[in-house]
Amino acid sequence: MKISGSYFLPLPPEQAYQRLQDPAVLAGAMPGCESLEKIGEDEYRMKMKMAMASLSGNFDGKVRITQQNPPNSFKLMVEGSGKIGFMKGEGDLNFTPKDAGTDVSYEGDVQVGGTIAAVGQRLIDGTAKMMIKRFFDKVAA
Amino acid sequence: MATTTITKTEKLVGKRIRRREDPRLITGTATYVDDIKMPGMLYAAILRSPHAAAKIRSIDISKAKALKGVHAVFVGEDTKNAGAVPCGASLPGLRVPHHNLLAIDRVYLVGHPVAVVVATDRYVARDGAELIEVDYEPEAAVADPEKALAPGAHAVHPQWADNVAFTFHQEGGDVAKAFAEADVIVKQRIVSQRLIPNSMETRGVVADWHAADRSMNLFTSTQAPHLVRSLVAQILGLEENRFRVVAPEVGGGFGAKIQTYAEEILLAWISMKLQKPVKWIESRRENFLCTIHGRGHVDFYEIAAKRDGTITGIKLKIIQDLGAYFTVLTPAIPTLSVLMMPGLYRTPNIQADIVGAFTNCTPTDAYRGAGRPEATHGIERMVDMVAAELKMDPAEIRLKNFVRNEEFPFPTATGLVYDSGDYSAPLKKAMEMAGYDQLRKEQVEARKQGKLMGIGLCAYGEICAFGPSPATPAGGWESATVKIEPSGQVTVLTGISPHGQGEETTFAQITGDELGVGIDDVLVLHGDTSLVPYGIGTFGSRSTAVGGTALYYALQDLKAKVKKFGAMLLESEDVTLANGQCTDNKTGKSVGFKEIAAAAYRAMKLPPNTEPGLLATHFWEPPNFTFPFGAHLVVTDVDRDTGNVSIRRYIAIDDCGNILNPLIVDGQVHGGVAQGIGQALWEQAVYDDNGQLVTGEFMDYTMPRAHMMPWIESGHTVTPTPVNPLGVKGVGEAGTIGASPAVVNSVVDALSPLGVKHLDMPLTPEKLWKLISAGSNA
After folding, report:
1. Contact between chains at B696 and A115 (C-beta distance less than 8 A)
2. Helices and strands in chain B, H and E counts
3. In this complex, which of B51, B110, B694 lies closest to A121 when CB atoms are compared?
4. Do strands B629-638 and B452-461 pair parallel, antiparallel, or not at all (unpaired)?
5. What domains appear along chain B, each with residue ranges and CATH number?
6. What is the number of helices (H) and of strands (E) in chain A?
7. What ipTM is given for this predicted complex?
8. Which residue of A has its CA nearest to B111?
9. d(Cα B490, Cα B517) in Å, to the nearest integer?
10. Which pLDDT tens digit goes with each residue over B294-345?
């Protein structure tokens, strides 16, 4: 599934770029994130709880940041698996100065499998958009 | 209730007798597999792959094993010598993938069983399964049969890079000449989408091994208990005579329970391993993924016709989506489509090619109609398209091309011999009931007002009463044993395994009439291999036409014996058996059925060359299939604003030969029509590009519900078959076969003012709304 959109952060691009790579910020902002632990350069182990439709479950996964081009763009890769299936996603984030802040646009691809795919497919689009919005709301706060 | 009717004069056959199996079903007292409980019984839960294609790097079962209440955890390495899931079909050059009970080093579809956890209850078993850690290395998958055949596609089985399981070619007549001399050639790609059978009861197995006497009791929700016994006993190296399979109450099958599944073998193996009874009940989500799917055709049709509407040739290429593995009949199903491809038409020239494609999906196999709905949908859509091309009425082109009454038995270009028929009769009857000419006038008026009204016809034929043994994978005969008890009550043991078709009633009707006893004195038993000598099972609309005929012949043997005892008691040589008694034709003296039965067992005196007791068994081998036919006529209105199809009238005229019980025949037609309309309008198994089934529950897979059904106006014409003495042809699949083309033809007719010539199923409101919106803007 393709995902794209943009969000306005009231921070200059340099700060926005940094904030979106700060493990503490990411852990606090990712919906359902229970822990985020650094395991390598730009690589983190993540535990998260996800709820969608009648399903909820814990995911163990990894977050990786690559193709760093501060303060213009980077690539975010997230993958996780748990009892209710697996998810895999990657997206490009682009930072453009706008007014006194930054327009963060994202474009990516999300793949889900297992029970979440079989019973939750029709909700994935909406759930993903909601989660992204919650994420940025927290990053901005 | 159980009283012997001594003077029974009314015939039972032909009456609308209520089903004798219904009281236990509607009072919730029937025993299904999940109702079986045994002391010390354990429960199995199966861990299944979330990936459509992946290598298994490692499996860690330690946490699951440590869970309190877990007795055992097994993985593919443990079961690799236990055998493989069997495929009964054979075709030249067929590539048969080894279908392990549990995946060993790779998984080939979402839902592929990877491990099994056995525990004290089903909840602990499920919890245990969730504690298993599998390290997968996912690979690209292919979920679409056309994409699977494209160069460079992911190989479902690495050893067969082209994903081709088999190719099949058949031709008859001179198709090249027919096409060279045609006035018009119409071509169309037609899809019969993948469907999920969705019986009300999911599958379930209880296996109960007794080591001391090396005996196995296997309770399973199946349509073919003897077949399961022969296959599983052989696979596990057990003695068939000590292997008992019971199909208790079975809550629907629709073809999806003919197969022998991995779980039936696995549970028997586990019970032997753990020396305990073990139960597994398929969850609804598992049922969507792990029980076979149906259809899955992409068909390429070409029809050659003369200007006057004479159809002179048919070319068909079928791409069959087989899924990742075969179940018992998987590769054979599309060959039935080829046999059925001429429909009811005389066309002597046909050419058919099948390509069976592997995909990383659930195996396809027999689903109500099995190959014939696809073929009927195809030919009936094509005939409409030829009619449209020639500006002929769709009824006229059908009537012109039907096999004529004087041509029966009619040899088809595909090698069948159609038994009997009057193909124009149901169509004419449907048109008369509908007021066809008036409807066409009404349609002209409706179109002037911009309304989208359609009239759709389908004249279907089908292959039933499977079948002559040389034409079937496991023998096509059927058996019946009839026993008159010393009390005069009658017990029938049949080799078929009904699970909703009502033979406990229809077979009691046949028996009652033949022996002259009341219906309450007859008990029909089935579905237990320790009770029934042997049987093939219930599928392919065969139960009454083949199993009922075996019963009929067993009853003739028994009648002769009853008459011998009657004659002895009456000291006569000329007696008649009727109305529950034997009567001396000279003196008019009679002796009752009960007294005869008692005498046969008491055996104070025996007729010459006659053994005591009253029991007869008959195995009947059918000399041919039967070929029911019929016509469905559907009037639809399509809502321009929503794309919703409303079925204003649904007329189903079916000719299934003689009708034993009109109530049951109507029920079969109604259920079949519901499934056919389901395919036409709503149902579809959808996989994404990664091989994930995205319609994995009832929220996403639209099953027809009662309120979505039209009123079905049923009617019949009766053309008895000469193939069996009952004259019955079979009606289990008729409704499904007739419905989808009739509905789609009606909707295409409704949308034809917008230039629509063909639509692929399902005709969802979304699909039609988009089309109408685009069309009205254009």
Report:
1. yes
2. 20, 28
3. B694
4. antiparallel
5. 22-30+477-620 (3.30.365.10), 33-139+203-281 (3.90.1170.50), 297-467+624-777 (3.30.365.10)
6. 3, 7
7. 0.85
8. A114
9. 9
10. 999 999 999 999 999 999 999 999 999 999 999 999 999 999 999 999 999 9
